[in-house]
Amino acid sequence: MSPFTVATAPGEQQRGLRRDLLACRMTTHVVVLGAGFGGLELVTRLSDAVADQVQITLIDQNDSFMFGFSKLDVMFGRQQPADVWHPYRHITKPSVEFRREAVTSIDPSTRRVVTDRDTYDADILVVALGADYDPAATPGLAEGGYEFYSHAGAERARDALEAFGGGAVVIGVLGGFFKCPGAPNETALLLHDFLARRGLREASSIHLVSPLPMPIPISRKTSAAIEAILADHGIDYRPSSMVTRLDADRRIAHLRDGQELPYDLFLGIPVHCAPPVVADSALAVDGWIPVDPATFATSFPGVFAVGDVTSAPVPRAGGIAEGEAATLAEVLIAQLTGGPPPPPYPGVAGCYVELGDELVGRIDVNFLEYDTPVAKFMAPDTRLTGEKREWGATRAARWFA
Ligand SMILES: Cc1cc2nc3c(=O)[nH]c(=O)nc-3n(C[C@H](O)[C@H](O)[C@H](O)COP(=O)(O)OP(=O)(O)OC[C@H]3O[C@@H](n4cnc5c(N)ncnc54)[C@H](O)[C@@H]3O)c2cc1C
């Protein structure tokens, strides 16, 4: 047990004792909830820059991390799950202690966190718990289809695809707000390749149903390029539409406008929600955590939030969560060292998109520096395929070395 944790129900006395302990050690106890894109980037930067001034407790319910895009690799049999998990036990960074525990309550006014095993009082508390899923919000999904956004869901979808003998596949985005806006298009194009490799493409149709008006709503030009690629691959793309329920017995997807779409295999991006421990806390407003998008401060002193769990005006994506965490690290380092505050988070990221035929494209986005968000599309080529691999490998090396 670290000197910053207590095993028994702690009282005011113990809290005071801990503060004294921290004062003696002249370190600041930073508690980071969630070891995903945001949490891992934050602890890496803090450990690199101010290890002598902080004691960081990093908490996650899992024992390993998986990149979001690896779920598509697992689903389409391109990678084995065992090869894409990065165990947290490999984190050996100065002043960082990883704890595998489930967070069960967060009190932002006292910065007290309770897990299934312990209680923590933070000087600085950072919530990076990501977004959760609510498959039950779509009636019939559990009985008649597969969500592929969770680790377990991706493996179930992989098994269903293995057994699939051809027919109509519907890929449905089931909520207006979801991780990685490029992912539904990637799924459709990787599915095209998967079916073609198995000699099943001719016997199959692929339908992509999304509530978004276009693939990348901030850019007509980028969206037109992606729509052309979808059309080239014979994919029936239905924007501004949404599957509201499945009739599992008849294998019919019911659309918002009353239309019916028959399917043999349904692959769904489930409705997203904040993890219950966040939704139940005083941090959540309309289900998510509001933050100052320049510094990621919440309305509670000493409490910050980054990544998918916030309602910052940017998309939910790993590259974005990482950029937010980098800015927050600068904010905290400036506070700890008495340096000048850093520039605000610019909302800039480069997102790689799998576009079929083993090719990757890139969308560079800038959400916050101009009056309106902008995007630039780099057409798919083999150089970007290597660049994407390198992007993931660099992060894994920095976070887990
Ligand atoms: C299929 C798919 C493809 C994607 N492709 C891309 C891509 O190509 N590029 C890209 O940039 N993004 C991509 N994403 C999105 C990206 O994975 C997420 O946006 C990113 O992981 C968000 O980072 P985060 O730190 O906010 O949350 P996460 O990385 O989700 O981390 C949250 C962590 O909190 C933990 N947690 C949650 N609740 C609790 C609790 N109660 N107690 C303890 N721990 C808890 C979780 O175990 C998790 O490790 C993809 C996502 C999916 C699903």
Structure description:
With 401 residues, the protein is an alpha/beta fold. It is 32% helix and 26% strand. It has eleven helices and 24 strands. It has helices at residues 12-25, 37-50, 68-75, 81-84, 141-144, 151-163, 183-197, 220-232, 276-279, 318-337, 382-400; strands at residues 5-6, 28-33, 54-60, 64-65, 86-87, 96-100, 103-107, 112-115, 119-121, 124-127, 132-133, 146-147, 168-173, 205-209, 235-238, 243-247, 252-255, 260-262, 265-269, 272-273, 303-305, 348-354, 360-366, 374-381. The strands form seven sheets. The chain has a five-stranded parallel β-sheet, with helices on one face. The relative contact order is 0.15. The model is unreliable at 1-25 (pLDDT under 50). The structure holds flavin-adenine dinucleotide. Flavin-adenine dinucleotide binds at residues 34-39, 59-62, 68-69, 71-72, 102-103, 128-130, 149, 179-180, 183, 275, 277, 307-309, 316-319, 321, 351-352.
Quick take:
This protein is an alpha/beta fold. The chain has helices at residues 12-25, 37-50, 68-75, 81-84, 141-144, 151-163, 183-197, 220-232, 276-279, 318-337, 382-400; strands at residues 5-6, 28-33, 54-60, 64-65, 86-87, 96-100, 103-107, 112-115, 119-121, 124-127, 132-133, 146-147, 168-173, 205-209, 235-238, 243-247, 252-255, 260-262, 265-269, 272-273, 303-305, 348-354, 360-366, 374-381.
Low-confidence stretches: 1-25
Q: Mean pLDDT, rounded to whole units?
A: 93
| Domains (count) | 2
* Percent of sequence in beta strands: 25-35%
Rg, Cα atoms, Å: 22 Å
Shape: globular
